[in-house]
């Protein structure tokens, strides 16, 4: 499959494009610092700026069949990148007729009642940005989306063992998040679902197999 990854130079993005390459996919690796991406037979660096308009973004997608949004400004450009940039990427995907869309979010982004939990106060603005980008994807698109909400990202070796839960989002290695994102690409059981994940004891493929028929996700608000 031909895949466009928005945020390919980020912590998750780097590991995601490497995983997708190993799976044999053609990866258009989009980033503002695209010169940092090593071009290979399967990885094609693409300059991609979240401040541009959807029409320009759509042109960058070329012949991609799926889009990943794993970009993040790390608090430096929340409105234009993490929120409005994400919305424009969704609009661009729809304008190109791309249906499969995988969106990396954050723990409890769609649950304002949880935002006063210990440790979340410093992430409030980021979580609010994710709330609105997640809601836009659910309420205002017809994409075959999956929203992944991992807990705290840890720069520790991955184990490929996770737990998908509707109630908690504990810490998880970045490597495992990248593998999970890659594994869910061609699994219709993940479509129109909001998936919370943390480190656990179930192999990633097995955890995804168990999603068949599980009603994760949210109804449209409006």
Automatic annotation (TrEMBL):
<dbReference type="Pfam" id="PF13460">
    <property type="entry name" value="NAD_binding_10"/>
</dbReference>
<feature type="domain" description="NAD(P)-binding">
    <location>
        <begin position="7"/>
        <end position="188"/>
    </location>
</feature>
<protein>
    <submittedName>
        <fullName>NAD(P)H-binding protein</fullName>
    </submittedName>
</protein>
<dbReference type="InterPro" id="IPR016040">
    <property type="entry name" value="NAD(P)-bd_dom"/>
</dbReference>
<dbReference type="InterPro" id="IPR036291">
    <property type="entry name" value="NAD(P)-bd_dom_sf"/>
</dbReference>
